[in-house]
Amino acid sequence: MVDRTEIIRSSISPIFSKVFTVDFYFEEVQRLRFEVYDISSNHNGLKDADFLGGMECTLGQIVSQRKLSKSLLKHGNTAGKSSITVIAEELSGNDDYVELSFSARKLDDKDFFSKSDPFLEIFRINDDATQQLVHRTETVMNNLNPLWKTFKVSLNSLCSGDHDRKLKCIVWDWDSNGKHDFIGEYHTTFKEMRGAMDGRQMQWECINPKYKVKKKNYKNSGIVILNQCKIHKMHSFLDYIMGGCQIQFTVAIDFTASNGDPRNSCSLHYIHPYQPNEYLKALVAVGEICQDYDSDKMFPAFGFGARIPPDFKVSHDFAVNFNEDNPECAGIQGVVEAYQNCLPKIQLYGPTNIAPIIMKVANSASEEMHTKEAMQYFILLILTDGVITDMADTREAIVHASHLPMSVIIVGIGNADFSDMQMLDGDDGILRSPKGEPVLRDIVQFVPFRNFKHVCSGRLLLKSKEHLAEQLIKGDLDSSVVEMPQGKMRRRPRQEIASHRESLCSLDST
After folding, report:
1. What's the average model confidence in pLDDT over 132-145?
2. Which positions ≥6 away from 77 have C-beta within 8 Å?
3. What is the residue-averaged pLDDT of the chain?
4. CA distances from 226 to 23, 131, 132, 154, 184 (A)
5. Which strand (E) or helix (H) includes residue 394?
6. How far is CA 340 from the centre of its chain?
7. What is the DSSP letter of 213?
8. β-bridge partners, 429
9. Can you give the pLDDT at residue 187?
10. Is 247's pLDDT higher than 90?
């Protein structure tokens, strides 16, 4: 047991005030069980309490729906009239960042043969009165009226998310020996800095305390000006999911001959009566993660590299259920069943071309991008046993798809040499099309299944989940329009991503 609510006496429709803080990891299936008891008025223990019912779900289901209501099941899984409702909201650190542009005028001249070389330092005053350097500008040489470059800093770094936290700003005259001359300082808060939003300016007198004491007519050592203050909202993964963004999950399976005859136990597609093959293991591991965020739980499933009925021509984007008008399968189990039913009806062939299936999903993503709401993000899971044979076309397709709300997860099945796949991943350099056009953002994650098949399914594609979550967090999706930032994104460790993703659950039952 993780925790329990307070006891509400004499109520058949209680609303519990106790909240539970739970770490939320998108890449894991986090199963929860809630149990409700009727406590005797004589004591508060559960030993003699009457069990009213229980409910099981995943944390992903709660997060994606925000308010999840389910029947309370009694022993024997019989449902009565009672139900329980779980409400979730995000508790997170502030990942917003601010863009600031400073200048100054009429600063004191500290040099004999030239003008001062000023730079500005900003310090955050911590709760224990210590000072933490937040940002140091560049030095503007020989200028008493400097204009420093615009810079960006997170609100966590600037003020720990507290807009009223004191900030100390110091202007120095740079010296090559490192013994910089103090020009002056001032104190402010981010709340005050926000006055420079919407094209306005904020100004502070730069004060040298020694001069203020010694000089009767001393006014200041210059004026520091904040010319621009822009707050950039950094939406978390939960912002998008709770805001209604849906993940559209598509599966593509390699049916090339290099997998081996499915009737042979050595084949990667062999259906063992008691043990799922690696294709099924990878499919279930990723599918279980994504299905909680897909509202209709209908997943398109395609195959490539096989000869298919009735004319047995090679296809690289055929529906695994053989229904080209509706390739969707009901849940991950539906994909599994379609895959198993498909194997006896097709002839494994080749080559291993994946550009057609990437373009098929990209077309759907392109249609979504041009809608007014653009509230869907597309994930294409490609399961393949070998090196792809249409590398040039695949690079072209990925560069095109990098402009769309789409990510591609490639899982290498078996023990082939997957070294060429790393090129598509883009971790070691920017992927380019054959014409030299770079990807707008890194949308591909390649994972060899052999590196993960002995760990729990929830961690199988941890790197891929970081990749997806980061793209959402970094602002690739806006609530009303898809927006793709320039440049490659930094991969973040699980602890960093998870640090700002916590769900707070409150309960009521009826």
Report:
1. 92
2. none
3. 82
4. 39, 21, 20, 17, 16
5. helix 391-401
6. 33
7. H
8. none
9. 97
10. no
